[in-house]
Structure formats: C-alpha cells, structure tokens
C-alpha cells in the first residue's frame, strides 16, 4: 500500500460506514504505523507498540512531574530586594535571560499544539508530544512564578522584545523556523512536505537543545556564585524536562529518517548543518550581548566554545559530523545538572526513579 493510499484509508472517517467484517487486524494496523503518513485509526491504541521508545519517554516524563510552587524562592526575593546583593549588570542579565526563555516556551507551546502533533500518526508519539506540550505550559507558569515572586514588572520580561532589538530579532528567527508548517493547509505526504516536516522536527532539536542553553547557563553562573539559588533550582527542573524533549525529537527525527530514507539527501543534510551553525551563531550573539565583556567568570570566548560544543553534540545526534570540535569549558556545570546532559551520550541515559518533585540523575 502506498503512502497516499494509507493516508486515504486512515483519514476517510472512523465509524462513518456501515458495519462490515474487520478489514485489518491489530497487528496489521501496528505494522503500518509510521511517525508520519502511517495508518491511524484515531483510537490511540498503544499496545502493542510500533515506537516503544516514545512510550518509555512518556513514562519518564510522568515520573518527572513537578510544580513550580515546590521551589523555595525566599532567598531570591531577599537578594533581589537587597540593593547590595546583585550588581546592575547581574540584574539586567537575569531579566534578559528570563525574558527570552519565557518567550521561547510560549512559542514552543503553540508550535507543538498547533503545528506538530496534528501530523503524527503514531499514538505513542502523540502521547509523548501531548505530555511535552503540558510541560512547556508548566514552564510558562514557572517563569510567571519567578516574575511574581520577585515582583518584576511584567513589561520588562514579557514585553522586552518590544524595546530590545536583539531579542526581537531572535524571537523573529525562532518563530520563522517553527512556522514553516504552520499553514492550516499544510499536509505531509509528498517528498517536499515531508522534508519540511522533518526540518521542523529538527528545528525543535535546535530550539530545545541550543537556544535555551546560554540563558540556562546564566542562571547556573549566578547560582555558582551563591546568587539567586531558587531561580537556578527552577531552571534545573525545566532543564531536566527539556532533556526529555530533546530525546523525544531526536528519536522522532532519526525514526523519520529510517522510515523515509529518501528524505535524508546530501543537500538536505547540508541545510540542516547550516541551520545548526546559524543557531549557534545567533545564540552566541545574544549571549554576548547579555554579558558584555563578561560576568562572574563567564566570558564571551568561553560562551562561544560552550555553544559550539553543544552544537557539535546536536549534529552528532543526527548522524552528522562535528562542525567545530570544541570542548566543554564549563565542567562545573555537573554540579547543577546531569553530567552528560549536554553530550550526545545523554540521549541514552535515563532519569532515576524518584519521588515527584525531586532532582536525581543517573
């Protein structure tokens, strides 16, 4: 059966015809599943599984459940209200970093709910993306919790892009990347549209795995210097969630490549590489604009090397060669997060079994 025939059979309308003897067995339905363009009866049957890795990720996400109200913020409130506790530069960098991550999770929530999930024909992957959408919304709430706890002016956070050209252009670039499949008339099923969808999935890897990283680093640098510990803990929870999102979209992208290898052309690979290179460059420009000549030991040169290191890990995860061969200049980041979090091998790792709302890694 061709892809187009499968799509017609799976989208013709469930329970719209007179009852007849079953045309397909459950085994046949599962065997015809694909990430996109597969047979989908709409009933979300997840046993047996065609893509068990998605169900594993979904279950880990559930075990990772937390809420921002669990994070103690009193020390941060005290520091923010103490004019001697933070420099003006540290306050500005904190607010700019918070502004971008809050904008980014808002964009991502809409992207998943409106653009990505409607094209997925594997029910277990739909479960995982649905859970991810919830977690992105939780992150939106988390940033709002920081804004409210510190009594920040919402305009200085959510509305910063209206007065900060660097942030405006960064948001503009991110939105353009995720909006390629936003047209309500967009449908997968042709070589061109399937490549566009795959590029959009890899765009999620770039969003989750590169764009967040300079902002996350800022919060960890502050915490390493005994500043804003509650905010850093909030970011640790968010970072752990983003790790799972990164795992999910790397598996989605690589599985589409396996199921439709014709999409992974040399020209397409070159485009993906350029997308990663451009993302690292833009993230560095943003981060360097935030920290100026440096802050609390974080220099622009180290930031560039770190982002290039992260970019190389994303390329390797997609089966592409490194671009920069950079090293991680911040080994101390292990103090705050999983030691292999930003390395390609972390995609094979799992979060330990733990009680809801605690941070443990393996």
Key terms for this structure?
single chain; 362 residues; mainly alpha; Ribonucleotide Reductase, subunit A; 13 helices; 0% strand
Could you describe the 3D structure shown?
60% of the residues lie in helices and 0% in strands. About 6% of the residues have low confidence. It has a single domain, classed as Ribonucleotide Reductase, subunit A (Orthogonal Bundle), CATH 1.10.620. The protein contains 13 helices and no strands. The termini are far apart. With 362 residues, the chain is mostly helical. α6 packs antiparallel against α11.
Short description:
With 362 residues, the protein is an all-alpha fold. The chain contains 13 helices and no strands.
Q: What is the CATH H-level superfamily?
A: Ribonucleotide Reductase, subunit A
**Helix-and-strand structural type:** mainly alpha
CATH topology: Ribonucleotide Reductase, subunit A
**Shape, please?**
globular
**Binned strand content:** under 5%
Largest sheet: none
Count every beta strand, where a strand is a DSSP E run of 2 or more residues. 0
Residue-averaged pLDDT, rounded?
87
Task: Spell out the blueprint of helices and strands.
Blueprint: H1 3-10, H2 26-31, H3 52-63, H4 74-81, H5 88-116, H6 123-149, H7 154-157, H8 165-178, H9 191-211, H10 213-224, H11 229-259, H12 266-291, H13 300-317
Helix pairs in contact: 3-6, 3-11, 5-6, 5-8, 5-10, 6-11, 9-11, 9-12, 9-13, 10-11, 12-13
């Amino acid at each position: 059966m061709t892809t187009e025939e499968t799509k017609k059979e799976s989208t013709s309308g469930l329970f719209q015809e007179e009852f007849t003897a079953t045309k397909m067995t459950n085994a046949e339905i599962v065997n015809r599943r694909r990430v996109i363009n597969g047979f989908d009866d709409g009933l979300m049957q997840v046993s047996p599984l065609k893509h068990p890795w998605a169900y594993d990720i979904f279950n880990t996400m559930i075990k990772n459940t937390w809420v921002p109200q669990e994070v103690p913020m009193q020390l941060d409130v005290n520091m923010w209200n103490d004019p001697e506790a933070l420099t003006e530069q540290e306050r500005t960098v904190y607010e700019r970093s918070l502004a971008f991550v809050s904008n980014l999770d808002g964009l991502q929530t809409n992207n998943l709910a409106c653009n990505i999930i409607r094209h997925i024909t594997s029910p277990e992957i739909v479960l995982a993306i649905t859970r991810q959408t919830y977690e992105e919304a939780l992150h939106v709430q988390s940033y709002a919790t920081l804004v409210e706890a510190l009594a920040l002016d919402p305009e200085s956070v959510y509305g910063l892009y209206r007065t900060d050209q660097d942030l405006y252009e960064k948001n503009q670039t991110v939105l353009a990347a995720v909006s390629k499949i936003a047209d309500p008339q967009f449908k997968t099923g042709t070589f061109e549209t399937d490549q566009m969808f795959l590029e959009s999935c890899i765009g999620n890897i770039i969003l989750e795995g590169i764009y967040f990283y300079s902002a996350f680093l800022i919060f960890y640098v502050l915490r390493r210097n005994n500043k804003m510990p509650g905010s850093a803990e909030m970011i640790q929870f968010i970072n752990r969630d983003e790790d799972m999102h990164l795992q999910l979209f790397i598996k989605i992208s690589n599985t589409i490549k396996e199921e439709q290898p014709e999409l992974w052309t040399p020209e397409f690979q070159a485009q993906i590489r350029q997308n990663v290179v451009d993302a690292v460059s833009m993230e560095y420009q943003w981060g360097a604009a935030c920290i100026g000549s440096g802050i609390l030991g974080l220099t622009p040169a180290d930031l560039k090397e770190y982002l290039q290191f992260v970019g190389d890990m994303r390329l390797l995860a997609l089966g592409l060669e490194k671009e920069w061969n950079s090293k991680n200049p911040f080994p101390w980041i292990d103090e705050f997060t999983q030691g292999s979090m930003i390395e390609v091998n972390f995609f094979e790792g799992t979060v330990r079994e733990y009680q809801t709302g605690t941070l443990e890694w393996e």
